[in-house]
């Protein structure tokens, strides 16, 4: 916004590697996208090592990542720290995403992950306690308000997630639709509102476009966001998911053991 942004910086932003290479983010809200890409790589590694559907291995990896994060937290304030706060958050984020895989196996009988039992079940509940109990303690021990606020947002997010999936189930056509397009809402809400702000600032100060109540701009912006999100869901997301399912089906077909023709006969 009113800052020079070179072509090289923009090009690296399309790779999602700009942060790792020292370039500025074109859109700060997209910081989660590189984390998601790394999570997909982790899942690929788990798949290739026959661990993706093994609850025990997934739980152990999630626990290791959380322990690494907990060890790194006290080092943030020290001079010459190997990782800053944002870098260390990758371990926490990846741990939580893996725990989400375990959570689905816990609540959804259709999940492909094996049933949680033994050490997987112990780690599942231990990790949950770590996220909702240990994180506030870490926040209390940290020295900066930024770190404290960030850690508390994780706890609040977990509380909303657990209440919304276990206690207060909201199932309507509207909320189901909002859930389907929520990822596109996340991707485009800043773009829409920033574009609206840019356009409004170019209008005359006393024009009808600049003199409406605040709620009118919020409502109008939300309507545009929902329209854009719906279009991108049906034109980009849904076809992409269909393609992913087809590729996964081909992978499963190749990985399936060949039928024993002689035994079948």
Q: Can you offer a commentary on this structure?
A:
- With 265 residues, this protein is an all-alpha fold.
- The protein is 71% helix and 0% strand.
- The protein has helices spanning 7-15, 32-48, 55-72, 85-107, 119-141, 145-167, 173-180, 182-201, 214-255, 261-264.
- α3 (55-72) runs parallel beside α5 (119-141) and α8 packs antiparallel against α9 (214-255).
- The radius of gyration is 23 Å and the shape is globular.
- 14% of the residues are buried.
Please, how many helices?
10
Helix content: over 70%
Secondary-structure-based class equals: mainly alpha
Spatial separation of the terminal alpha carbons: 71 Å
Oligomer: single chain
- Please state roughly what percent of the residues sit in beta strands, choosing from under 5%, 5-15%, 15-25%, 25-35%, 35-45% or over 45%: under 5%
Shape: globular
Radius of gyration: 23 Å
What is the string of SSEs from the N terminus onward?
HHHHHHHHHH
Number of strands: 0
Question: Tell me about the biggest sheet?
Answer: none
Which blocks of ≥5 consecutive residues have pLDDT under 50?
A: none
Mean pLDDT: 85
């Amino acid at each position: 916004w009113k800052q020079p942004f070179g072509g090289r910086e923009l090009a690296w932003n399309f790779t999602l590697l700009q942060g790792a290479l020292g370039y500025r983010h074109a859109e700060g809200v997209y910081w989660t996208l590189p984390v998601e890409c790394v999570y997909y790589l982790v899942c690929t590694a788990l798949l290739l090592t026959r661990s993706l559907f093994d609850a025990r291995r997934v739980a152990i990896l999630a626990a290791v990542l959380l322990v690494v994060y907990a060890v790194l937290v006290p080092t943030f304030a020290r001079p010459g720290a190997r990782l800053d706060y944002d870098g260390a958050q990758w371990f926490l984020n990846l741990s939580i995403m893996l725990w989400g895989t375990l959570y689905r196996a816990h609540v959804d009988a259709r999940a492909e992950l094996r049933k949680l039992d033994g050490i997987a079940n112990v780690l599942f509940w231990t990790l949950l306690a770590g996220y909702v109990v240990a994180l506030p303690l870490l926040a209390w021990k940290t020295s900066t308000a930024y770190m404290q606020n960030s850690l508390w947002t994780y706890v609040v997010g977990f509380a909303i997630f657990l209440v919304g999936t276990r206690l207060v189930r909201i199932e309507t056509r509207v909320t189901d639709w909002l859930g389907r397009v929520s990822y596109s809402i996340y991707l485009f809400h800043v773009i829409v509102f920033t574009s609206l702000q840019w356009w409004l600032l170019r209008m005359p100060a006393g024009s009808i476009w600049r003199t409406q109540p605040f709620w009118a701009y919020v409502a109008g912006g939300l309507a545009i966001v929902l329209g854009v999100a719906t279009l991108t869901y049906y034109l980009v997301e849904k076809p992409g998911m269909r393609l992913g399912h087809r590729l996964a089906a081909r992978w499963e077909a190749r990985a399936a053991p060949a039928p024993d023709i002689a035994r079948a006969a």
